[in-house]
From TrEMBL, chains A, B:
The gene is AMO1_2. Contains 1 topaquinone per subunit. Its cofactor is Cu cation; Zn(2+); Mn(2+). This is Amine oxidase. Residues 2-98 form the Copper amine oxidase N3-terminal domain.
Length: 572, 572
């Protein structure tokens, strides 16, 4: 973070920047009100890769507590990290003086001034008087048959290792390692120099490095276990973020329920989930990352986007040309995507795994034929990925496409199908920047929803190990691992890694401003043919009755049902 | 429910059924252990539409508390509702005697016998000591600027009417009416008579009629307000389900957060949601329906599937041919889809609304061109639906497709775009039964993700008002409303209805058995260009500090931040 603040310090004193501020309508004595979010330059062919550069996205704060994102400036200084100087300024052909609109703030004084806080929210208290249901030994969490090591590094943030599930006394491997390995946020405005806005927040900055300390203790509710994050920083020394990782349980609603209509015998069982989370701030945006374990064997990744839109200046009445939205007078929020790459190193009952693409398909035979008279036949079509090249695949919603990570050496005794975990992910937009263009070249991982590679020690980073100022000529990371000779290796029945790109396309609107309500996206890793039955049947029910207990109740006029020990709900 | 039990009573005494039971290996003195789930016949061309018929899906319970779904029988009696007789039995060419496997039960005695309940779950208590944040007057709920009338009928279950949002003192229309209007569950096994398994649970049975009474009070946690459901039943008399509708609040996690990296000024605000829900039991399956209101103006529909798979008999070693999965020895669970049709009657600042399909598209100009030099241009392409015929559309994940319901007569003052709500729905499989086949003809609504019609008083039921034993020749409901003359009406700037089909394709696995962990699916109706800013900024933050308060704190060594009144979390 210190690095970032140096840029701001330098721009405020640079005469060329001061000159541009004056042109923008900012008095030269107001340079302490000028703010700079330094982004790594991405790649700019004019300057190449030899000198470490930052592009300074510039803002103005009329008053110390105003949000600077309502006062974007229209020029972009380039900062040389080696000489600590401004070496260039990108100035647009059409100038846009600093916004004259009143501030659009979200802090308490602003809310109080505009009507105050709502007073009709009664507290919800969530307590665990007997403590939590998990144990922590060093960095290993045990909870509800799950066991997981919680790692952390400057880049990926939380890394989950050695994830196992205790299946009736047998500790079974599920995943060797799970992480968010990379992300890219391409912006869709083709006007220079906005094409450089396509941050790789993990590879260029580090999701761990930017993680919030939750020391104030109020991002989550209930009984929280915090872990610190310790990692090596850019200077090579150790750094600690206190309370970086939040670990807590939440009620998860109905886990299962069934009523028999004949006799009203019923079972209803409530679920519980374990969340291991961190929040990181990437300049204007925040990313809240939740790794969620469920009692039914499901692992869920949820990402919530919040924080503040990246904004750019616009003149009154200016046409955004469809590349952005005026979210407040004088504030243009450009179209963008948030594309995440999840790295899944499966260990489904051991490291020898194989990936299948699974598509729902209509059965053969036309309507009226003997084999499909009524046309209702359908089945799960499975395509085995034999090589990395074959594994390059996109999402298809119409076939309910999923991807299964299987151990073909172990079959479910009932279904006869290989034990597996399937990836169920529905938020999978196409990479919108065009083939052959800058983002497409640099963010090769984002061209497709799924790539599978043979495990290699040095393949952790889907856009390459070193990302800043790579040109994408040639592309780093995944495109290399799935093409040429590497792309022809066998990935059957061996130690493999599945890389999954998911995310959203974001066309801003005024509702997202001045701070954005959290936008959630989620994906599931679900056991299929892994267990012999629903593994959560032994979770104590909140209510259960059987046909025989119902019968006894009818005869005696009382009793019959088993109530759980959990205090039940209160009617109001 | 009485109707259903009559069928079971009759089959147990019918000599032809008894004969089939004996062939299946059930002693004739055990007929009280034979169970029947009567499904409406769907449509069977041999019997036509003139006589009301039920198909009896047959099961056996070795002991009163055993789940009958582990002992499916292989024949299907046809019950004539008028004469209350068995008029026919469908007998498969290959016989499958009753299952010999031990029971697979989920009730407490069975769990105790196989190791007992887990003992390591500590309670989570959720309390609202000051009461709830909503008010109820008759059937109108007010909560966090929302106002909604909660209706209920035998067919759709919960119906939400007159949904408005109080925007700083102005009560603005959002939706006139929301409901789940129809559903179909087609099974994918083409062997006779499984093609008849494609229940329209709302149109043939009634989601209201089958709703669970939550009188035991333990399906939800916290402070619950229950509403009874009163409706007219088949006999024409009034019927009440006590505590049919559950209304309660839940904590919703982070609503928004932002930290400024320079000064660590921060705001974090927790969200709250209001859930209006019911659970209905459709023979073996349960559907949990949650209508969820959020503080940021979003309306969410979540459906959880739980209960028990529909099962059919299989012989040891029998090949399921890909049409199903052996989930337990002798138990074949067939492939199926759950396709729901949501009826949305928008009222976006009044009834004159228009629907646009919105797709993310790459900008014009090849990489290297003046207008798109780096290839990064993309925008939201909007297609106006001018007629019902034009509105027939499918989901496209690659373009992040959404559908916007707009009031073109009212533009957002900042963005200049029409006020709107967009439908964000990502679980939208194609209807798998083939074009021209039985299900395709009867479930016309499910052929496409979206249809838009001009509002008509008598158009409430997407598969037709009367569904049982319709042949689909011609198709009832939506296909008629979007074709011919009706399909050419103008749906611009008028009172319209959007019909949305969503759901999942379900290939069963042993984890889903003997009772299925809840499988959630969800969709959002989100305000876009409807508000001038994030409408939840006045929700009291759990923590807030400003640059100036941080500065003061740094100078004084104390204070600065505003803590919310909510008790914050406890570290463990
Ligand atoms: Co965004
Ligand atoms: Co299902």
């Amino acid at each position: 973070m210190e690095d970032l603040q140096i840029v701001e310090h330098v721009v405020r004193q640079d005469p060329k920047v001061i000159e541009q501020c004056v042109i923008s309508g900012i008095p030269r004595e107001d340079m302490h009100k000028v703010y700079c979010d330094p982004w790594t330059i991405g790649y700019d062919e004019r300057f190449g890769s030899k000198v470490r550069l930052q592009q300074g996205l510039m803002y103005y704060r009329p008053n110390i507590d105003d949000s600077q994102y309502s006062y974007p400036l229209d020029f972009v200084p380039i900062f040389n990290c080696d000489t600590q100087e401004i070496t260039h300024i990108d100035i647009p052909p059409v100038r846009r003086p600093v916004n004259k609109a009143p501030p659009n703030n979200y802090h308490p004084a602003a809310i109080e001034a505009s009507g105050g806080y709502r007073k009709d929210l009664k507290p919800i208290n969530i307590t665990q008087p007997e403590g939590v249901s998990f144990t922590v030994k060093n960095r290993v969490i045990e909870w509800q048959n799950w066991k997981v090591h919680v790692g952390f590094n400057y880049r990926e943030g939380i890394v989950l290792n050695n994830i196992t599930y205790n299946d009736k006394g047998t500790e079974r491997g599920v995943f060797y390692r799970l992480s968010l390995a990379e992300m890219v946020v391409p912006y869709g405005n083709p006007e220079h120099p906005h094409h450089r806005k396509h941050a790789f927040d993990l590879g260029e900055y580090g999701g761990g490095y930017m993680t919030n300390s939750l020391a104030v203790g109020c991002d989550c509710k209930g009984a929280i276990h915090y872990m610190d994050a310790d990692f090596v920083n850019k200077a090579g020394s150790s750094q600690t973020i206190k309370n970086a990782i939040c670990i807590h349980e939440e009620d998860a609603g109905i886990l299962f329920k069934h009523t028999d209509f004949r006799d009203d015998s019923v079972i209803v069982t409530r679920g519980r989930k374990l969340l291991i989370s961190h929040v990181f701030t990437a300049a204007n945006y925040e990313y809240c990352v939740y790794w969620i374990f469920h009692q039914d064997g499901t692992v869920q990744l949820e990402v919530k986007l919040t924080g503040i839109l990246n904004t750019y200046a616009m003149n009154p009445g200016e046409d955004t040309k469809g590349w952005g939205t005026q979210v407040y007078p004088g504030v243009n929020a450009h179209n963008h995507q948030h594309l995440f790459c999840m790295r899944i190193d499966p260990n489904i009952d051991g490291p020898a795994n194989t990936v299948f693409q699974v598509d729902a398909r209509q059965g053969a035979g036309e309507v009226g034929s003997t084999e499909n008279k009524y046309g209702n036949a359908f089945y799960a079509h499975r395509t085995k990925f034999r090589t990395p090249q074959e594994s390059v695949s996109d999402y298809d919603g119409s076939t309910s496409r999923t991807w299964e990570m299987c151990n073909e050496g172990k079959l479910n005794p009932y279904s006869g199908k290989p034990v597996s975990y399937k990836l169920v992910s529905r938020e999978v937009p196409a990479l919108l920047p065009k083939g052959g263009g800058l983002v497409w070249k640099r963010a090769g991982f984002a061209r497709h929803a799924v790539h599978v590679t043979k495990y290699q020690d040095d393949q952790l980073h889907p856009a390459g190990r070193h990302v800043p100022q790579t040109s994408g000529d040639p592309s780093q990371g995944i495109p290399n691992w799935v093409s040429g000779e590497a792309g022809q290796q066998s990935i059957e029945n061996t130690d493999i890694v599945l890389w999954h790109t998911f995310g959203i396309t974001h066309f801003p609107s005024p509702e997202d401003y001045p701070v954005m309500p959290a936008e959630p996206m989620t994906l599931l890793l679900r056991p299929r043919n892994f267990f012999e039955r629903n593994p959560a049947l032994d979770v104590p029910p909140s209510y259960a009755s059987t046909p025989s207990s119902q019968l006894a109740k009818a005869k005696s006029g009382g009793g019959g049902a088993i109530h759980g020990s959990d205090p039940s709900s209160v009617s109001v």
